[in-house]
Amino acid sequence: MAAVDSFQFLYREISRSCNSYFETLALVGALYTASRALMLLRDCCTLVRVHFLPRIIPCKKLTQRYGDWAVIYGASEPVAKAYTEELARHGISIIFVTQEHTSVRDTAASLSQSYGVETIVVLADFSLDQAASKAIKEAMRGKDIGFVVNCVDESLSSPQSLIEMPEQSLLDLVNKNVAVATLMTRLVLPGMVDRSRGAVVNISSGSCCRPLPGRVTLTALTGYLDHFSRALHLEYSGRGIFVQSLIPFQVRYLISSLKGWFVPKPDVYARHAISTLGVSNRTTGYWPHTLQYGLMRCIPEWIWVLGSRVLISSS
């Protein structure tokens, strides 16, 4: 009986001495819970502000906000092609810059016929160094260039080890997705600065947010476009230039069997992405993709990498 009384007395004394610690831990827990709730509320408000309000509230035409012409590089890619068509639907004339004339010739003719806009196709061989920029400058001369759109090469999405890539193919990919995209922006930017308006849109991939095994080049090159866009926006946003980094996740192509809200068709994605122009300088462009991005941020990187390896090894 004495042992029981001693235990109860000891328990009461320990509880009394630790009571202040319990209250402190409870306060810390409450503060943490409140902070997470505020962050969730902030993310929900951002989702509504970026993806829903611009589609509800009327605003000025794109031609009035930015300009009458757009320079597009990478228009043969499905997402960029759909984005270009959406610009044409808003009355924007298009200058296609391509290294292969046949890849965009039909697209240019179709846009002119469907939307009554002017289209110009510039064949530019960027392996000739500065010689390629002369044709682009000539095509832009005297035009109110309001947009420049660069799109990452979709062939990067196919899993491939770095050591399996031929050296020349690797150099071509870096040149096309890094050097040329940067050069295109450099060519268009001075005119935008003079007019104090314009939009630079770089379409990369959600893969830039987290590393993926077997997709080293995709992660690296899209990461460059993403950081290039963010740095450019920081430097030129005060001069009337809006720079946007679009980081879409999975988009449905003709050969894809994936369906659903989280895998939109390119034209659906483009309509949503255009509505975020001037609202968010870094976005997925499509609200279900933003939900995916938010979920991905909650997963620790080591769990993400482990899960990616298990997924790839089982496929």
From TrEMBL:
CDD domains: 17beta-HSD1_like_SDR_c. InterPro entries: 17-beta-HSD3-like (IPR052149), NAD(P)-bd_dom_sf (IPR036291), SDR_fam (IPR002347). GO terms for cellular component: mitochondrion. It comes from the Eukaryota. Keywords: Mitochondrion, NADP. Pfam families: adh_short. Belongs to the short-chain dehydrogenases/reductases (SDR) family. 17-beta-HSD 3 subfamily. This is Hydroxysteroid dehydrogenase like 1. It comes from Seriola lalandi dorsalis. The lineage of its organism: Eukaryota, Metazoa, Chordata, Craniata, Vertebrata.
